[in-house]
Amino acid sequence: GENVEQHPSTLSVQEGDSAVIKCTYSDSASNYFPWYKQELGKGPQLIIDIRSNVGEKKDQRIAVTLNKTAKHFSLHITETQPEDSAVYFCAAWGMLTFGGGTRLMVKP
Amino acid sequence: DTGVSQDPRHKITKRGQNVTFRCDPISEHNRLYWYRQTLGQGPEFLTYFQNEAQLEKSRLLSDRFSAERPKGSFSTLEIQRTEQGDSAMYLCASSQGGRETRGYTFGSGTRLTVV
Q1: pLDDT tens string A1-60
Q2: How many A×B Cβ pairs under 8 Å?
Q3: Per 3-state DSSP, what percentage of chain A is helix, strand, and coil (rounded to 5)?
Q4: Interface probe, candidates B29, B39, B90, B102, chain A, greatest A C-beta count within 10 A
Q5: Is A63 exposed, middle or buried (0-12, 13-18, 19+ CB in 10 A)?
Q6: How far is CA B38 from the centre of its chain?
Q7: d(C-alpha B22, C-alpha B35), whole Å
Q8: Which of A63, A69, A98, B49 gives A76 a disulfide partner, CB atoms 3.0 to 4.6 angstroms apart?
């Protein structure tokens, strides 16, 4: 089955800096890669996604890049704000296998 | 319809008791999924339904776990003879199946504590 590795497990940045979270996957048949944000006491919320026929996608301060050859994809958050602080999960489509999560802390 | 609803939000039960959780998906979504999430981990897939058919259940953690979606709308997840290791957040999600399926919409989860 699919295996998704996510790094780093925790990330602390200063407000206004950029944050990058990286994931690798094992199943070359996976073709859809969403990212979720989870705040305390809530379920994961989809923030951006990318399909395998696209190398990059951007939505305001958030972007995702995909390298199918290397089987890795990354989340980029620019101009971070305190409200970006949360746990972020990557996932790969098979039966939506999740990475272990990254706790992002944005210091004001 | 404002999203995926799960009930209860919290459940404390004694070891050995049975518990049942309910999930109401987004009304136009035909697929419904159950995940378990333990502290500090990503959600772990358990089972999913397309309409009333349970299409994948091999990932249910043991035969103490079962799920139903009798009319293709809401679903229930039951855990029999609960154990302390069952303590976790149980998440439900739904989606509209199809070629361009996007990521699921998750509910807020049911947090189970087994004492």
Answers
A1: 788 999 999 999 999 999 999 999 999 888 899 999 999 888 999 999 998 888 999 999
A2: 51
A3: 5, 55, 40
A4: B102
A5: middle
A6: 14
A7: 13
A8: A63
Pick the closest to residue A90 from A17, A33, A9, A19 (CA basis).
Answer: A33
Tokens of B13: 């039960």
To the nearest whole Å, the CA of A95 is away from the closest chain B CA by 7
CA distance A2 to B56: 15
B80–chain A nearest CA distance, Å = 24
By three-state DSSP, how is residue B85 classified? Answer: helix
In terms of Cα–Cα distance, which of B45, B44, B43 is closest to B55?
Answer: B45
Nearest partner of A47 among A39, B49, A55, judged by Cα: A39
Amino acid at position B89, single letter: M
Q: Do A43 and B33 touch (CB under 8 A)?
A: no
Strand, coil or helix: what is B109? coil
User: Is the CB of B102 less than 8 angstroms away from the CB of A43?
Assistant: no
